[in-house]
Amino acid sequence: MKPASVLFLFFLYSFAGWIWESCYVSLHTRRWTNRGFLRGPFLPIYGFGALLITALFTPFATHPLLLFLAGMASATVLEYGTGVSLERMFHQRYWDYSWFPFQLHGYISLYSSLWWGFSSLLLVRFLHPLATSWVWTLPAGTVILFTSLLLVLESIDLLHSLHRTLPAHLSTADTPADPFLSTCFRPLPF
């Protein structure tokens, strides 16, 4: 698969993850909640997770139990690592399973791990084949155009989100802010 198509699928899965998680949390809180670190409608952990699962475990599509277990383990490791990394970088917790039984440090839980296993089955056996079939029907120029546009927009969103989060953390640190980071995260004009 061409790099633009893979990146297009990354954005598609990141958007689908944002829809799923924002709706799920909004239903539980009874108010609209835009989930994630970014302001835009993307949760990159879902894009990375989906591409990781499909790249590694598509050969196991005919072995549902193995696919479930491997997908569950991989996505759980990704979720734990992402949760720890985000909290260490930004001193903010973006999700917390502390109130779930069978959880580890609030970053992962048995409940979420079982969900990742089921999601891996659904993704590899049904959703990814549909998504790739759809992407293959699109003209290459369209895929490149939309992927390039999304890459620019999400890069701006990422820089804006980092600007919004990092300077506050750096200014309260015991050590002076890195001059390189200070110049990278100047106020954006929006």
UniProtKB/TrEMBL annotation:
Signal peptide: none
Domain of life according to the entry: Bacteria
A Pfam family the protein falls into: ABC_trans_CmpB
Tagged with keyword Cell inner membrane: no
Transmembrane annotation, as ranges: 6-25, 37-60, 66-86, 107-127, 133-153
Keywords: Membrane, Transmembrane, Transmembrane helix
Name of the protein described by the UniProt record: ABC transporter permease
